[in-house]
Write a structure and sequence with these properties.
Elements (H helix, E strand, L loop, with lengths): L1 H36 L15 H17 L6 H14 L8 E6 H14 L18 H10 L8 H14 L4 E6 L2 E11 L5 H4 L6 H19 L5 E4 L12 H13 L5 H17 L3 H15 L4 E2 L8 E2 L6 H16 L16 H9 L5 H7 L2 E3 L11 E3 L2 H14 L3 H9 L4 H6 L4 E4 L1
Length: 439
């Protein structure tokens, strides 16, 4: 295992970093030169003032060259120095740059899949993680292919890739657009990676679990010594909710745009759900519904409950969090306020629930997920419960769940574990966006 971790570190340090730096530098230079040639960034301004485009271009070029020369170009601090000058040249604010969060393990899993399964079953290929003519993908793929499973399992390769990126000081990577690598999106890597000592133990073994637990205790003991700054869950809204959370509002707004010229019965159903949500604000069970929704949609990888499985996993491609939030709330409201929706027959222009179910199934929200969250109880053992077999969980149980989650907000790890019914550390990493430090 020591040989594998050393090999992976060398691949990222000696090949991935220089080849990715060259790709980003080439794309940024092309954009800067295109801006200058367009004439909009140089010469005299509209009011006779001297345009500072050339000066800003020079500053951006200097920042780019300094970034290329740094020992650790993929540290977040070095990205911020580069992006500040480039965004200034593009007349964009930092908020407009496309930065997404992803856990190191999830990114390492995507990298493994692109290398070994790219192009099959709809998986993105190597072009989504590496520039054209890169050498590192073929080297890493060959090493994985020619390694016997008994020596290094898939899980060990994924953990090793994540650990190697930490050891090579890779804190961000270029993202992908339409399954091709792009410098215009940045993926910020979050969460911890296993140490070489932990990697040496076989996944799911008692020794591995003991080493991982010891590593967590070590991190926690360091956190305790910090100056009274404690992490807690921050969903961005005060509870009880007195207004619709921003991400849910954005989801319904996008749905109205998408269906403006589409099936008006579907749009009317979403409008009925929005009105129902507005009416039930400040209801304790509405609070619980929104707490669960905001936690699920905060995950950097979209959670799902796959057929014939128990427990949450993640989708291959992340869904739009706002659309997921709106669809999740709509489906949860069917059980919270069933009288607000037509079930078997369309009511005026509102599509009935039995037909709407088929629409929402494709949006990433199904009864398997609601059952796993504890929102509904299901009669029978059907893997994918029908609506007629499902009922809202007894209200006293839901009130207790709400109160428990409210109390656990000061214990982020336990809170997230309670929502996802899992003690796996990756769920905490995936939901890091809602974990804030507070005095």
């Amino acid at each position: 295992m020591d040989r594998m971790t050393t090999f992976l570190h060398e691949v990222f340090q000696d090949l991935w970093i220089p080849e990715t730096v060259a790709f980003i530098a080439r794309q940024v230079r092309r954009g800067l030169n295109r801006g200058i040639r367009s004439g909009g960034r140089s010469g005299v301004g509209d009011h006779g003032d001297v345009d500072t485009g050339n000066e800003e271009s020079a500053q951006a070029m200097i920042a780019l060259e300094a970034w290329e020369a740094r020992d650790s170009p993929f540290k977040t601090s070095n990205f911020e120095k580069l992006s500040a000058e480039v965004l200034k040249f593009d007349d964009r604010s930092t908020d407009e740059s496309k930065i997404v969060l992803k856990t190191r393990r999830d990114f390492a899993e995507e990298m493994f899949v692109a290398l070994m399964e790219g192009g099959r079953k709809g998986h993105p290929g190597v072009e989504s993680i590496a520039p054209t003519h890169s050498t590192w993908p073929s080297i890493l793929r060959a090493a994985i292919q020619h390694t016997r499973g008994s020596f290094a399992t898939r899980a060990q390769w994924v953990s090793g890739i994540a650990a190697a990126m930490v050891s090579a000081s890779i804190e961000w990577v270029p993202g992908s657009h339409r399954r091709r690598l792009t410098h215009q999106q940045v993926v910020q890597l979050v969460g911890a990676a296993a140490s070489a000592t932990v990697l040496a133990a076989r996944p799911d073994s008692l020794k591995r679990r003991a080493l991982e637990a010891e590593a967590r205790r070590s991190v926690d003991s360091v956190g305790v010594k910090r100056a009274k700054i404690r992490p807690r869950i921050d969903l961005g809204c005060k509870i009880p909710f007195k207004q619709i959370p921003d991400i849910v509002e954005r989801g319904f707004t996008e749905i109205r745009r998408l269906f403006a010229k589409g099936d008006q019965r579907v749009l009317s159903h979403y409008c009925a759900a929005y009105c129902c949500l507005t009416d039930c604000l400040e209801d304790p069970l509405c609070d619980l519904m929104l707490i669960l929704t905001l936690t699920i949609t905060a995950s950097s990888a979209t959670p799902e409950v796959r057929p014939n499985t128990k427990g949450f996993s993640v989708t291959t491609k992340r869904r739009d969090p706002a659309l997921l939030a709106a669809n999740m709330v709509t489906r949860m409201l069917w059980f919270l306020r069933p009288e607000a929706f037509p079930w078997d027959k369309d009511q005026d222009t509102v599509l009935r629930v039995s037909e709407m179910t088929k629409k929402i199934e494709h949006k990433g929200v199904n009864n398997r997920m609601l059952r796993e969250l504890g929102w509904i109880k299901v009669k029978g053992n059907r893997d994918s419960p029908r609506n007629c077999e499902s009922r809202l969980t007894p209200k006293d149980e839901l009130f207790k769940l709400r109160n428990d989650l409210m109390f656990l907000m000061k214990e982020p790890r336990t809170f997230i574990g309670s929502v996802f019914k899992s003690n796996k550390e990756e769920w905490v990493d995936r939901c890091s966006a809602i974990i804030k430090d507070r005095e």
